[in-house]
Amino acid sequence: MRLSSAGFSPQPPEGEKRVLNSELWHACAGPLVSLPAVGSRVVYFPQGHSEQVAASTNKEVDAHIPNYPSLPPQLICQLHNVTMHADIETDEVYAQMTLQPLNPQEQKDAYLPAELGTPSKQPTNYFCKTLTASDTSTHGGFSVPRRAAEKVFPPLDFSLQPPAQELIARDLHDNEWKFRHIFRGQPKRHLLTTGWSVFVSAKRLVAGDSVLFIWNEKNQLLLGIRRANRPQTVMPSSVLSSDSMHLGLLAAAAHAAATNSRFTIFYNPRASPSEFVIPLAKYIKAVYHTRVSVGMRFRMLFETEESSVRRELQMGCVVKDVKNVLLHNIESQIERLSVGKLQLVSMILDSYVSYMGTITGISDLDPVRWPNSHWRSVKVGWDESTAGDRQPRVSLWEIEPLTTFPMYSSPFPLRLKRPWPPGLPAFHGIKEDDLGMN
Amino acid sequence: MRLSSAGFSPQPPEGEKRVLNSELWHACAGPLVSLPAVGSRVVYFPQGHSEQVAASTNKEVDAHIPNYPSLPPQLICQLHNVTMHADIETDEVYAQMTLQPLNPQEQKDAYLPAELGTPSKQPTNYFCKTLTASDTSTHGGFSVPRRAAEKVFPPLDFSLQPPAQELIARDLHDNEWKFRHIFRGQPKRHLLTTGWSVFVSAKRLVAGDSVLFIWNEKNQLLLGIRRANRPQTVMPSSVLSSDSMHLGLLAAAAHAAATNSRFTIFYNPRASPSEFVIPLAKYIKAVYHTRVSVGMRFRMLFETEESSVRRELQMGCVVKDVKNVLLHNIESQIERLSVGKLQLVSMILDSYVSYMGTITGISDLDPVRWPNSHWRSVKVGWDESTAGDRQPRVSLWEIEPLTTFPMYSSPFPLRLKRPWPPGLPAFHGIKEDDLGMN
DNA sequence: ATGTAGGCGCTACGCCGACAA
DNA sequence: TTGTCGGCGTAGCGCCTACAT
């Protein structure tokens, strides 16, 4: 066979009983992705679910798809179950969630208490590198960033010349991959050589994709991939029309809503434009406890692509932001690692970038099909001209208004020791009443 | 990059406006697959459609999927449009059909006239070979069966030593592939060498898969693949649950039936256990004009897998059969080619095998969800013990009862010159009132 | 007639520093 | 610190025939 399967021990795919490591899943999903806690109450948006299908099939929802008047634009649900999976073909991570719409009485109750969810397990001791052309070329191996190798790879025996060892890493499907890890060259550097190229070709990695290494609790090295945002990764839909898919999720939600019975959805964070299962508390806070109006300034988090970040930094017009989950990350990492706060904060900051914009309108995204929906009800204009491909509409819970004053002061006095770059808006305090979201 | 793309000229996938060659599509779909004629009336079976999803997602339809009482088990439809496609990733062929349920009055009319469909264009001048281990190994090229090369490849210039030429073939996506075609060795043979291996690796072909070459009307060489029946080709459904998919097709059909509006379905002949869009005439004939009863013997066509055929032939218990469309094939080929009838018939026969069995019962497959459905209403027992994986239930239009006498004599007196193998049931006449069905 | 294997030339895979950036 | 390149040794790709079935 052409594609060598050396180092690849096939697993029975049917079973899939093995539970995917949660931290590996989150690492592959990306830093901004969070899953609501099992047992908590969430809000489900058929529109957002539909957008995931549209983005995957690369086809907009057709006009002749019937309306579901009985299906409200948002469904308050009990989240019964969440399981993490990875696509057999692509290693894309996705989550399966079992939702149960609340009955009318429960829905009323839902607005009363502030629900405390548990923050999702964000990985702590891992590293993620975006592959360069050299990394994916057949000419050589993989250049390991120095700090990453020292942080997550087992220490080398430096009495050897050159120092080297065999690394065994398990991917999302529990297949083993073996790599030769060597420390050589002038100046000295960490490299993965033998075994690397078969991995690259088997996973069909290209420059721009990312790989990440992480330890599990059983002291095993895990290995995940995060593919670059392809222009469009067309899903093979040779078996069901995209229209039927749209209808399918609507019908499933409508039936569940009508009977208050459970239904199942798949959330693919890399394929979906936005999260469409939101913690109830986050939704309530954004919709009922935050005042927004046209003309208001806001900011919103995005995942980093190195290139754009550097460019923006040079232009001096990007605000880095720390919020919500990051606090959890920082605290836990500071406890575990003996690294300086500032260094750690800057490490984490490197994964995010926030863009600023102005609210230009508040209206229904689809007044016919989904009147009075909060999904993408906010029309926005982005500051950067480079943000041409950003969504012109966002949902309230995705943005952070800037003109409202912080209601509480931060419990975690984050102060940068170096001066705040001139021309940037001042950091405003981090709210502590985040209600446990994320 | 690891996978060389030499000989691969990328096409814009978004457009997909180019129309797929019909004969190539049918060649890839296999000899038993036929598409109803555009404009004709057909019967659509939600159950069969559901089976296609189940087979693709490798997941049975869940019990908690709601019923669609308003959706009958079969829908008589006008077939407005049929387009042929091929999966970008796998080259799997599939068809997109636009159906419109007939209103009640039209439904009644439908049972009156016998509708004459046009037989689908089955390829005539082509060849198909199942790849051997040598064909797919990196050690060498592709061994072209002699008759195939002489029939479909351009004639070689035998003044050259050795005779050789460059073949250019276009795949289902109109990508060009170049192969060196050479006639050498002792004894002499046709081989594809340079260019073959990149094709094998790009298409990820393995031993057991088939390739086929065919000419289009513009005198271009076309190239398709037919993958072996993998144990299960799990569809990447990281974006929509199989439950939602089942619901989706039901909802689409129910909505279309309720409003007599058009809907769209995908038919993937290699993934679907059975055809679920049947020419109306074929349905009517099988259901209303054929008497079947428990204990009756029947036979049914299947596609050939060489190995099983050889084994069965040795056991002397297989009946090869010619029926319906085959007549069309034979006649057109005899006109075009100057090959003897017997030779041609035996060539075509090699693509089919029919298994025999006994009807053991007639009942609803799913009495709760789909009462009074003709879908797989016939419970059968197969003669061969090797047919353990065959469906225990079939539909009336899939089988050919043997105890009924032929209603008409054959217009095409097919007589084998060699004696009919002893122990085999006698050939019965071929019916001419096939109403254009395939 | 055609699947497989041995022989063997040569491409390109992949391991190594040397350089910048 | 790390991306890319020139260098090179060699595994294995791929073209040929021989042989068996």
Task: Tell me about this structure.
The structure is a homodimer of 438-residue chains. In chain A, the strands form 3 sheets. Chain A has a 7-stranded mixed beta sheet with strand order 4-9-10-6-7-8-5. Chain A contains 11 helices and 17 strands. Chain A has 438 residues and is an alpha+beta fold. In chain A, 24% of the residues lie in helices and 23% in strands. Chain A is elongated, with a radius of gyration of 23 Å. Chain A binds a DNA duplex (21 and 21 nucleotides) through residues 132-135, 137-141, 143, 145-147, 182, 184-187, 189, 191, 193-194, 196-197.
Features of the shown structure:
438 residues, Auxin response factor (chains A, B), DNA-binding, disordered N terminus, 17 strands, 7-stranded mixed β-sheet, homodimer, alpha+beta, elongated
In the predicted model, the low-confidence regions of chain A spanning at least 5 consecutive residues are 1-16, 306-350, 404-438
Terminal Cα span of chain A: 45 Å
Could you tell me the radius of gyration of chain A in angstroms?
23 Å
Number of strands of chain A: 17
Mean pLDDT score of chain A: 76
Helix content of chain A: 10-25%
Largest interface: A-B, 55 and 56 residues
Shape verdict of chain A: elongated
SS summary, helix count of chain A? 11
The oligomeric state is homodimer
Can you summarize the main beta sheet of chain A?
7 strands, mixed
Strand order of the largest sheet of chain A: 4-9-10-6-7-8-5
Write down the secondary-structure element order of chain A: HEHEEHEHEHEEEHEEHEEHEHHHEEEE
